[in-house]
Amino acid sequence: MCPPNPNKPNAQYDDVTKLITGLENYQNANPDSVADFKTMTALHKLVDSSWFRNRNDCHLKSRIEKMRQEWTDQTMITREAQSYSTTNITSGKRAVEVNHDNVQSTFPHADLSIIKSDVNLRGISRTAPVKTYHLIAALRLLMQGVDSTTIYVQAVHMMQRDDQLVVAILYVLNMAVLANHNDVDKDRQPGRHHPRHLTSNTVDGSKFPSHQRVLKEYGFLCSCDPKSIMSRLHPTPYPLVVVASKECTPKTIKRHLDMSVIRRWTSGLPKPQVIQVYDADANAQISNALRERMQRGTPRLTHCELIITSREGADQFVEMSTMRTDSPEPHIGGRKSYQSEEDCPRFVQPVGRWILLGSWPDDTKLTTVESHVHAQAAGEFNNSVVTPVLHSPTQEVSDWLSRNFENSLNLLCDDDMRRIRGMAFREDEDDEDQSSWANILIYPTEGSRCITINLKDLERLNEGSWLNDNVISFAMQKIEENMDQQHKTDVYFFDTLFYTTPTTKNGKEAFNYNAVKHWTKNRNLMTVPFIVVPINEKYHWTAGIDGNDDSGDALRDQAREEKASPTSANHPILAVRDRDAVVHSSISTNQLSLLTKDKSSQTIANIPNSRKGQTSSAQRKKKKLPASKQYDADMPVIITLFGDQQTAAVSHLKGYIGAEASDKHDVIVGRNQIQAMTAKESGGVRDQDLDGELDKEKDFESFDASGKRARIRNELLELYEKQVANHKSTKSGTKFSVP
Amino acid sequence: MASPNGSPSPGGEDRTEQEPQQSEHLNIKVTDNNNEVFFKIKRTTQLKKLMDAFCERQGKAPQQCRFLFDGQRVNPPDTPETLDMNDGDVLEVHQEQIGGSC
Q1: Does pTM top 0.90 for this prediction?
Q2: Mean pLDDT estimate for chain A
Q3: Which residues pair with A451 in a beta bridge?
Q4: What is the mean pLDDT of residues A282-304?
């Protein structure tokens, strides 16, 4: 094995060498071993790669060739490997599915998760298969002995089209191997491969709990480019070891962490704190720091810590963390002898599959985890995230896992997995419909205002993602459904595209009433007290609420009774607007999601209401503007929230009202007659018992945006399942059964 | 997909009665403000077909396109019949809207 040469710029070479050495050792120790197809493919790809050719390393090549040769004798495997490599050239979910079955049937012991990661890797760096494949070989190597779920879960998360990244992952994988070695023999120097250990792991298929624990405790996150990690970092219970290249200054890393990680962190988890930002070269520093921690008797990091270190630093980190392994079992000849059955590793025979999402705070609800799983499944659909899969066959195992985790661990069972797979890859027998519409939910199933929600839209519900029109529409639909029957006729919800349509023409801003003239052909807007206009403008979601109260005398009376405060404002338009959505944080989704809020209709006054958890119809009626002194009760009023930048929107809405009135009803409503106000200035909008100004921090404080997102996601999933079930039951009928 | 055998519609018998009144085929214009594509489709054909065709022709991802007919979302299983479309009607195509807040 080549010792690392500081002068050699290419660390990748070292890693590959290490890998090859490891494989050779494994092969030597197991003359009867059967190379799995992935390793074979990986080797094949490695040799064929341009990277390898450029290196022109005959020595290494001959080693690989020899290895391949020996393994090629296993003809069945080879054939399988070949077919695998060829069929997999095609990408897309169909191919994935086929190969998945293939793999499963041929290699019953093949690890689903590795396959999944394979799939994802290929999807992501399709252009550079070699990298993925030799990575997979490394993973495979690990998988033979260890449950390295943690490691490659993280690895896959950060998989990018990033050459350096692969190197980094390889490095981490190597570290894991080393950790495993340390586990066997603590006295040996890390950095050496010990074939026997690998052998023992592979032969009996056992996995070492202590290694398991190490990996569980120290999730690794490595990248040469923190930017690439941070963009897809998911909440992890593990301390993060960011392996950064030397070009990355601590400042850079920290900035990225601050910007992305912390903002994206689930609200359920404590925000990570960077305990120390280590300089890229500060190996001694990190060692000392860790040693100190260990001496203090608190070696275990809490999950809200981030350690940023260099590769070397991370190496030492692992080394040290494994050194303090407390496994008392003696190691005899590279095998563990177990004192009792109790001590035996439990991961011997994977019979079931579990999804391990990591550990969560104790009070985390299962639904939260579920929704993350679903989000991940949806992400998988887009090749962006892989769902970690952990072998854990029995209740015993999950118990074991639970016992060994400080934080609570949520395991989802096989059914969930199926459910998710069913979502991502439609498992319907009817292959007739493999078009792009295969994974859609149509909701509601009847009526003229159905919306189509693609399952891809579920990603939009991920924390920190921007919402799209489908999600907004769905949420509005839900709001409408949950309204009291008697009020349903009082509110008309426009489509999310409504505002955009007349206001943009060929990408430019203009007002063109004709574009939406037909939209209301079946509806007399002037008789609808409240009109909700979702507004999407410059990547902001906003709602305009247009309250036409002139026909709503009864309503007004009712409201008056309920509120004992006269309502007025014939045509109030309420525009709830968010500003500057360029930087999006989870907090900000509060405002956003108020549009999609709970049962009450989304008007300004009931936003504060919801803060108090009141959803009675009386409260809902507060949206009716109490008679305000400064506004004419017979005229439309435009009310805006949060700011002064909505003049264009107000102007457009004014224009629309005017045009609609004159076109459909021959009523002239001058622009001047339509008044505009902001919620801040309008005492009229606010109810007396709603104190103070509408402060977006304060008033939406209680609004649980993440929770709302999760709820919507769950609703969508349920509906989708219903639709599938419905579809199956009425299979003889039309494809999309409309009851 | 919409093969006559594959999707026998329960309302098939009714349709035969209606058919004499309305012509079987419709010309539908699909426009996204820049491009206009005309389709001739049967009243009973799912608009999914048309949407797919349009997206394919324009090189757009179907998931990012929103089809509207008179302000009403068009869903893949809809047909001109269910939407009560007439000859020469226009389907508008809009882009997916995304957004956040500050």
Answers
A1: no
A2: 46
A3: A443
A4: 43
Instruction: Return the beta strands (E) in A516-578 as ranges.
Output: 530-537, 540-547, 571-576
Domain range list for chain B: 24-95
Which one of A93, A433, A469 would you mutate to disrupt binding with B, by most B Cβ within 10 Å of its Cβ? A469
Could you report the per-residue pLDDT of A245-285, keeping only the tens digit for each?
A: 444 455 555 555 444 343 333 333 344 444 344 443 444 44
The CATH topology of domain B24-95 is Ubiquitin-like (UB roll) (3.10.20)
Q: How many CB atoms lie within 10 A of CB A484?
A: 14
pLDDT of residue A647: 65
3-state secondary structure of A52: helix
Contacts of B78 in chain A (CB under 8 A): 450
Q: Is 60 exceeded by the pLDDT of residue A112?
A: no
The pLDDT score that the predictor gives to residue A469 is: 81
Adjacent-strand bridge partners of A545: A532, A574
pLDDT value of position A106: 29
User: Considering only A9-23, A618-632, A675-689, which range has the smallest mean pLDDT?
Assistant: A618-632
User: For A457, which DSSP code?
Assistant: G
Residue A516 makes CB contacts below 8 A (sequence gap 6+) with A498, A501, A502, A656, B71
Q: Are A244 and A280 in contact (CB under 8 A)?
A: yes
Tokens 């009774």 belong to residue:
A561
**Alpha carbon of B91: minimum distance to chain A alpha carbons (Å):** 12
Q: How much is the ipTM here?
A: 0.75
Task: Give the closest of B33, B55, B73 to A451, CB-based.
Answer: B73
The pLDDT > 70 percentage for chain A reads 17
Q: Which H or E element spans position A708?
A: helix A705-729
Q: What is the helix (H) or strand (E) element at residue A244, kind and residue range?
A: strand A240-244
Backbone φ and ψ of A32, nearest 5°: -90, 5
Q: Please tell me the distance in Å from A221's CA to the nearest CA on chain B.
A: 28
The crossing angle, in degrees rounded to 10, of helices A311-323 and A283-295 is 20
Q: CB neighbours of A8 closer than 8 A, spacing ≥ 6?
A: A14
The pLDDT of residue B51 = 84
- SS3 at position A566: coil
